[in-house]
Amino acid sequence: MKFGVIRFPGSNCDQDAFHAVKDVLGQPVEYLWHQEADLRGADCVIVPGGFSYGDYLRCGAIARFSPVMSAVQEHAARGGLVLGICNGFQVLCESHLLPGALIRNDGQRFVCRHVALRVENAGTPFTNQMRPGQSLCIPVAHGEGKYVCDDDTLAALRRSGRILFRYAAGDNPNGSLDDIAGIAGEGFNVLGMMPHPERAADPALGSGDGRLLFESLLNYWR
Amino acid sequence: MAQVKVYVTLKPALLDAQGKVVQGALQQLGYEDVTQVRVGKYIEMTVADGTRAPAVEAQVKEMCDRLLANPVIEDYKFEVEA
């Protein structure tokens, strides 16, 4: 299974994602430059965390119009796998690949710590190696991670099981609506999440729980 | 040449965490009458060939919808001075 990790100016979790795929999962991976509308044959595209284009205007607003994102749009429309982490989640929302938006944390602070995530739907390409209700220890690191959407969108997300991860009760770091930490697109081939599974894929980093997400992708692909 | 002023604000239904903190700071300074603060963005643009105001307005609206504002969370208004 081939992975591609996008690099925008200001991406800073690209190497973590690359390491998780190459060294932990043992799968081929390439960097994808934002100026090239070429996914180099990637089966799964990772839109990594960071501060693409300096977070200017709104997080992810400028990255959305980069050449590589038009290729990602086509890839997603064909059912291709896309994983957006942190700033990547913001980019996917700005790109309308996922509904809603991410705004400033309620506490107004940048939050950088491990949180407890609850697996809400374990029947997806991203979660099939997890158990429903399982608790995962995964770090967050963001200032603008409060997920918001309108009532109709929230109802649709709930109804269709597209909320894959919630922050555990009492552990919501940003005031996210309905404790939402990660949502999937309609076809379940696109996932956006604020927590960083790639920073918890190697037990040397304090938690290995994020590895389950990458193993789920591999299992789905096989 | 047209001068364009765009104002982008968070939708009223959304809590403006930044505005709330600024309000708290103002109250701390003794401005207790400040009951609400909303922080937004102000964008100035110069548009060449902006002699036909209606055409510029249509273009600016498109710019706001596509890039300058996110309709999911923000409202915008703008002024065009030919």
Give a structural overview.
- The complex is a heterodimer of chains A (222) and B (82).
- With 222 residues, chain A is an alpha/beta fold.
- Chain A has helices spanning 14-25, 67-77, 87-94, 151-159, 211-221, and strands at residues 3-7, 29-33, 44-47, 81-85, 101-103, 111-119, 135-142, 146-148, 163-167, 180-184, 190-193.
- Chain A has five helices and eleven strands; from the N terminus they run βαββαβαββββαβββα.
- In chain A, the strands form two sheets. Chain A has a nine-stranded mixed beta sheet, with helices on both faces. Chain A has a two-stranded antiparallel sheet with strand order 5-8.
- Chain A starts with a strand and ends with a helix.
- Chain B is elongated.
- Chain B is an alpha+beta fold and 82 residues long.
- Chain B is built from two helices and three strands.
- Chain B has a three-stranded antiparallel beta sheet with strand order 2-1-3, with helices on one face.
